[in-house]
Design a protein that fits this description.
By secondary structure, the protein is an alpha+beta fold. The chain has 19 helices and 20 strands. Among the domains are: 124 residues, 2-Layer Sandwich (Uridine Diphospho-n-acetylenolpyruvylglucosamine Reductase, domain 3); 247 residues, 3-Layer(aba) Sandwich (Vanillyl-alcohol Oxidase, Chain A, domain 3), CATH 3.40.462.20. The structure holds flavin-adenine dinucleotide and 2-acetamido-2-deoxy-beta-D-glucopyranose (NAG) (8 copies). The site of one 2-acetamido-2-deoxy-beta-D-glucopyranose has 5 residues, from α17. It holds the Pfam family FAD_binding_4.
């Protein structure tokens, strides 16, 4: 019994160091395999995987390696190009292992001078999947060989779920495909759903999908980022401009094709694999299976009446308290504006220098670039409406602000009409830069919490903004509250069904600086807390929240958590898929760069 002997020897506390590491290696199933240990598949085994996926197995060097002398791919011209492209989403989404936010590769190969470079923080192998079968081969291999598995589509993830060290990654970015339907009959269902719909591959990205549907005058409930893919977006919930009208993206799903952790290729809809269908719509990415395609409802493309609305204070004559009192008032009006058809993205901020350069406010150029400006800004739209409609819904808000804080805030209300959602999107997609270090923080707020106590909200929003920008996205509303997802429900955090506002912010960090990392964690907790106290029973949108919440199960899934956990244990009893913070992740922990069972 050599195995038993090793275990016993390793358990003895004072065994002299004559025992080699390999004798004391952890049990094969205690930790996932890592390269350089006997548990890791041999080169021949990897080569067989490569053959089984038609030579599509990659072993890519880190994208930043071209900037580091001594790395095999070192190349100054390529380095210059990588540095230039680093802040663009496309660079990271089109690369097999790059991620949009730097810290998720553990800073092991940033493209800057003086930084270290190794592959440590990246997956070891990647399948450049284009078919369901490639995905299945990857899942089967990881399960059989105890290899840590990750799914990367675009790498946008704010909580770091699309990358891991010592792993095999299935890169779903190149699983495209696009087919529209005048009505849709889910497989093995007798019912035909009387709605236009579209079936797309899991790698399909927002702007491409919007463009293809626009060509037939249709659109979907989609997000504000141009390059986000349907994979993480739909499985996480998916909010956007059309959500207050029609429900979240997860509410539009009619069917999915999924490779399960056991390696089955299944169709999930209201008539078959109903548990999986429920869980994959809101339960989160890379947890219950790999979605290879999704069918969603589509809608007639609306005309967009856009507004840039702002109330700005400049100079030193307005106290921060006054600015946030005004913000608390305007934000309290958003549920009512939402009920009148408005949706969009609002931002609030204390007096800051250079803030106007972030917002393309028509006709507003600060005379003095060093001038400090604080207040409220919203980029929003009404659908199929006139400029008069837009001015009418804001008029009472402007009148109230003018009467309450005379001469304190300069109002701006500029409208612009767009013939379609797609035309609007080309000028109003999310332009925050990629390639940064930092985290998201957020909380969902319902109408009652936004209107109950404006004094309290004023202070809470100021704390939430943290001396910088806070946001109140009006991306939920009646359509989300009254949504009728197929099959009688889905796993979306129940707090969405009452919320109007998804308030988000960002916390930047400095790489290789432990003080900054610790400060960021404290700040994420404090900012979450500032809003949680306004609506304690609500929760946070897992796709855009702090990864470090103590009670993430409840915050991200509320009362759905227990059912999600049961489904996870059934479909993935041995945790072939594991990520954090994800359903069922409690029984593993990351020890250094290894993933091990909790003792
Ligand atoms: C600039 C920007 C704008 C954004 N705007 C919005 C917005 O308007 N609305 C909104 O709701 N969210 C928005 N988000 C958040 C976005 O929804 C999440 O970052 C989401 O996780 C991205 O999904 P992805 O597939 O593009 O990214 P990835 O990082 O590749 O994947 C995210 C997660 O999903 C998993 N996953 C990906 N594909 C699959 C699949 N096929 N099957 C199973 N699991 C999969 C990954 O393993 C990972 O866990 C935005 C993010 C950014 C960076
Ligand atoms: C997989 O096979 C292809 C084609 O034979 C080859 O070009 C590629 O280098 C192989 N991948 C790995 C990781 O060895
Ligand atoms: C991945 O596959 C796609 C589709 O076949 C191909 O165009 C692309 O070049 C591949 N990427 C890499 C890095 O091999
Ligand atoms: C889309 O709408 C435009 C303008 O109304 C119309 O000219 C065009 O024929 C429509 N296209 C389709 C495919 O319906
Ligand atoms: C906008 O108008 C179009 C054309 O009349 C209609 O089909 C669509 O449902 C409307 N959309 C919204 C959100 O009102
Ligand atoms: C704001 O006040 C500070 C000191 O309190 C002063 O240095 C600065 O010049 C003032 N700025 C403006 C625009 O008045
Ligand atoms: C603002 O209030 C003043 C009186 O305090 C009034 O003269 C002015 O017309 C108001 N402006 C707007 C836009 O309501
Ligand atoms: C590290 O971070 C702290 C806190 O943000 C900051 O005060 C300090 O200047 C940083 N140090 C370096 C070397 O960047
Ligand atoms: C990140 O890198 C540090 C060394 O800088 C290492 O100790 C740690 O284990 C790494 N973590 C992960 C998750 O790879």
């Amino acid at each position: 019994m050599p195995l038993l002997r090793n275990v016993l020897l390793c358990l003895l506390p004072l065994v002299p160091s004559v025992l080699s590491d390999s004798q004391c290696k952890p049990q094969p199933d205690r930790c996932k395999a890592v390269p350089g240990t006997p548990g890791w598949p041999s080169p021949q085994t990897w080569a067989r995987l490569n053959e089984s996926v038609s030579g599509r197995l990659l072993q890519p060097p880190p994208p930043g390696a071209v900037c580091h002398a001594g790395q095999p791919t070192y190349n100054e011209a390529a380095c210059a190009a990588v540095r230039t492209a680093w802040t663009s989403y496309e660079f990271h989404t089109d690369h097999p292992i790059s991620t949009v936010w730097n810290q998720w590769n553990n800073h092991t190969c940033l493209p800057w001078d003086g930084n270290p470079c190794s592959s440590q923080g990246y997956p070891v192998f990647v399948i450049n999947a284009t078919t369901v079968d490639h995905v299945k081969k990857g899942v089967d291999f990881a399960r059989k060989h105890n290899v840590r598995l990750v799914i990367k589509s675009t790498g946008h993830d704010y909580v770091g779920r699309s990358n891991a060290p010592n792993s095999l990654s299935i890169w779903t970015h190149n699983i495209k495909g696009f087919e529209t339907h005048a009505s849709f009959k889910p497989k093995r269902c007798s019912v035909t759903i009387d709605s236009t719909a579209v079936t797309v591959g899991a790698g399909m990205q927002m702007n491409d999908l919007y463009g293809k549907l626009d060509a037939i005058n249709q659109t979907i409930v989609g997000g504000g980022g141009r390059s986000v893919s349907v994979g993480g977006y739909v499985t996480g919930a998916g909010h956007g401009m059309l959500a207050p009208h029609y429900g979240l993206a997860a509410d539009q799903v009619l069917e999915m094709e999924i490779v399960t952790p056991k390696g089955d290729i299944v169709t999930a809809n209201e008539c078959q694999n109903a548990d999986l269908f429920w869980a994959m719509r809101g339960g989160g990415g890379s947890t219950f299976g790999v979605m290879t395609s999704v069918t969603m409802k589509t809608f007639p493309a609306p005309q967009m009446m856009h507004v840039d609305f702002a109330l700005l204070a400049s100079g030193n004559n307005t106290a921060t308290r006054t600015i946030f009192d005004m913000v608390a008032y305007v934000v309290s009006q958003l549920p009512s504006l939402g009920d009148q058809g408005l949706s969009g993205y609002s931002f609030f901020f204390p007096l800051l220098k250079g803030i106007l350069s972030l917002f393309p406010l028509p006709g507003v150029t600060p005379d003095d670039p060093a001038a400090e400006v604080g207040g409220f800004f919203m980029s929003a739209a009404l659908m199929n409406a006139t400029a008069g409609d837009m001015r009418r819904i804001w008029a009472p808000v402007l009148a109230h602000v003018n009467a309450t804080w005379p001469n304190q805030f300069v109002p701006i209300l500029e409208t612009k009409s767009y013939p379609s959602f797609y035309a609007w999107f080309q000028e109003h997609y999310d332009t925050t830069p990629a390639g940064q270090d930092g985290y998201a923080v957020s909380w969902l707020l319902d109408a009652e919490s936004l209107t109950r106590d404006l004094n309290k909200n004023s202070q809470a929003f100021e704390r939430f903004a943290g001396g910088d920008l806070g946001t109140a996205f009006l991306v939920s509303g009646k359509g989300v509250h009254n949504a009728q997802p197929r099959g009688g429900g889905n796993a979306v955090l129940p707090a969405w069904r009452k919320a109007y506002i998804h308030a988000t912010g960002g916390v930047r960090t400095i790489p290789f600086n432990a003080t900054s990392a610790a400060e960021a964690r404290r700040e994420l907790a404090a900012r979450t807390e500032a809003l949680r106290q306004l609506d304690p029973d609500s929760g946070a949108y897992m796709n855009e929240a702090s990864p470090f919440l103590d009670d993430w199960q409840r915050a991200f899934w509320g009362d759905n958590y227990d059912r999600l956990l049961r489904i996870k244990r059934t479909v993935d009893p041995n945790d072939v898929l594991w990520c954090t913070p994800c359903v069922g992740s409690e029984r593993w922990e990351q020890v250094g760069d290894r993933l091990c069972r909790v003792k």
